[in-house]
Design brief:
- With 164 residues, the chain is α+β, with helices and mostly antiparallel strands.
- It is 34% helix and 9% strand.
- It has a two-stranded antiparallel ribbon with strand order 1-2.
- Strand 3 and strand 4 form a beta hairpin.
- It is flat.
Length: 164
């Protein structure tokens, strides 16, 4: 099963207890707090889901991986004027430093290529190699950003600027 869950994702209208909030409530508490509350709720639901899956199958492979992190404050303040080439290392890390959690019982993930600086492009290659005996080569672990919203397909590499 593959599921792409947009949690947390703006607008942050889900409170820590799972209740829906109005935009005015979010404004009052501030976007950072609203994000953290939504994240906490999402994390609790995700842990419940992992528990249910492992109760049904102790051999289940589970990969929880983000596609991106939150946008930095400077970006949120001026989305159309923000240039990723001018982003600080901390801003790049905030956006591109993602959650990557993998559970694959009985698999030798390190022998299959799992390493500390792995990027999403190799996640399924490692799983397939470790659990299903494939011999897929790992791709280069590189991270790219686009210049700005006006030049969405003008990419430049930021791999060396991220904490590994």
């Amino acid at each position: 099963v593959f599921a792409h869950l947009l949690i947390p994702h703006p607008p942050y209208l889900i409170d820590v207890d799972g209740s829906a909030m109005e935009r005015g409530e979010v404004s009052e508490m501030g976007e950072d707090t609203a994000y953290l509350n939504y994240l906490q709720y999402g994390n609790e639901r995700m842990l419940d889901l992992v528990d249910r899956i492992t109760e049904l199958s102790d051999d289940a492979i589970i990969l929880i991986q983000a596609d991106e992190g939150p946008f930095p404050a400077r970006y949120r303040a001026d989305e159309w004027g923000f240039e990723w080439s001018d982003a600080t290392d901390a801003e790049l890390e905030e956006k591109f430093g993602i959650l990557f959690a993998l559970r694959a019982p009985g698999a030798d993930l390190e022998a299959a290529g799992l390493h500390d600086s792995i990027t999403p492009v190799n996640a399924f290659r490692v799983i397939f190699n470790a659990r299903f005996g494939t011999d897929l080569p790992l791709l280069p672990d590189r991270t790219w950003a686009h210049s700005d919203l006006k030049h969405f397909y003008d990419f430049f590499e930021v791999t060396d600027r991220l904490v590994r």
